[in-house]
Amino acid sequence: MSNDPQGSPGGITVPVLSLFALFALWIIAAALTGDAQVLPSPLALGAPFLQELRSGALPYHLGQTLIRVIWAFVLAMSLGLMLGLLMGRFARINRWLDPWLVVFLNLPALVLIVLCYLWIGLNEAAAIIAVTLNKVPNVTTVIREGARALDPDLDALARVYRMPRLARLRHITLPQLAPFVAAAARSGIAVIWKIVLVVEFLGRSDGIGFQIHLYFQLFDVGMVLIYALSFIAVMLAAEWLILQPWERRVRRWRAA
């Protein structure tokens, strides 16, 4: 039986109560500040939020950011899974690529974003490539550790029964890697959307990051919070409704 509190029917109660506590703390902090230009109360953001929603500006920019997040996530997970599996399974490939991995792990995201814009231009391809390159090393590192932890007895069994490579990958390798893929996906989506906002802040003409940049120039704290919190809400929904249930499912066989 799973010990994960969120795996139980009432497991969502604690996260919801925790968010309400944060909401209450925000109200208290806004009251103590006493200046809506510095920290507006969340209750005061309702009207401008609805106005942005009705005008279509918020859904449009939210959608543009989501498209970039999805593209970068799919590319980073695909490349990271392939590289991590190769590096974890083949020592020679790992010796050659490990220095590259260390370099990219320590290369600041801002540097990669600026270089991609300078080399490729201020376009959509540069934005997505910059985000993907920032996340691939992290995914590769997690998957490599998973590939190193694969059970050699199961591998030997597959060879004895002469399983085709694709069948071995599907029925033996990927089920063992699934918890590591889930961990890389959960951490990946959290990092990717933040980098996407920086990319939009620096060089795009739409998206949540662009809107935050716009209202930053206008010193409008309320609108900055509205756009930031809207996307945070979407990411929390993805975490609770998709990623966490999937992670519990792929880990279930280990607890059996």
What level of helicity do the residues show? over 70%
CATH homology-level superfamily: MetI-like
The major sheet is characterized as: none
Fraction in beta strands: under 5%
- Total strands: 0
Order of helical and strand elements: HHHHHHHHHH
Radius of gyration: 22 Å
Can you put this structure into words, describing what you see?
The chain has 256 residues and is mainly α. It has a single domain (55-255), classed as Orthogonal Bundle (MetI-like fold), CATH 1.10.3720.10. It is built from ten helices and no strands. α5 (109-120) packs across α8. It is globular, with a radius of gyration of 22 Å. The protein starts with 12 loop residues before the first helix and ends with a helix. The model is unreliable at 1-5 (pLDDT under 50).
Lay out the secondary structure.
Layout lengths: L12 H21 L12 H10 L1 H33 L1 H16 L2 H12 L3 H25 L3 H9 L4 H39 L4 H10 L3 H35 L1
Helix pairs in contact: 3-4, 3-6, 3-8, 3-9, 4-6, 5-6, 5-8, 6-8, 8-9, 8-10, 9-10
Write a short abstract of this structure:
With 256 residues, the chain is mainly alpha-helical. It contains ten helices and no strands. The longest helix is centred in the C-terminal third of the chain and has 39 residues, at 165-203.
Spell out the key features of this protein.
globular, 256 residues, mainly alpha, MetI-like fold
